[in-house]
Amino acid sequence: MKSWWWAGIPETLGIAVVLGETYQRLWPKFVTQSSISDGLAFASQEDWAMDVDLVEKVGRPPQEQTQIPDRSSGVMNAEDFRRYMEQVRRVGARNIRRKYPDGWPFGEPFLP
Fold first, then answer.
1. What is the DSSP code string of 52-87?
2. CB 90 within 8 A of CB 61
3. What whole-number distance in Å separates Cα of residue 43 and Cα of residue 11?
4. CA–CA gap between residue 6 and residue 10 (Å, rounded)
5. What is the pTM (predicted TM-score) of this model?
6. Per-residue pLDDT for 25 more than 80?
7. Torsion angle, CA of 49/10/39/109, rounded to 10 degrees?
8. Average pLDDT for 11-17
């Protein structure tokens, strides 16, 4: 995944996940619980109507690959947000306060 908003695998997965080769190498347990097609590993709950996280089936993602909960450095009030947006416009980034997991597998984080 290469996008301005991607910052690691969420700790909770929802009902379905698709992983590419990079994350497959880092999370082999996921691959054993998945079906592989065209180099992608697909895993999902059998019944999408049930409110059961996929973590129950495939396990938790590796801690060094999971999103940092406070990745945007906390909640901002209106004044903080205005100052933040001024900085964003000045440097031309979409999110200059993003935090990445320790095991970020893609080299320098992607910036647009």
1. --THHHH-PPPGGGBPPTTTT-S---HHHHHHHHHH
2. no
3. 15
4. 10
5. 0.69
6. yes
7. 150
8. 91
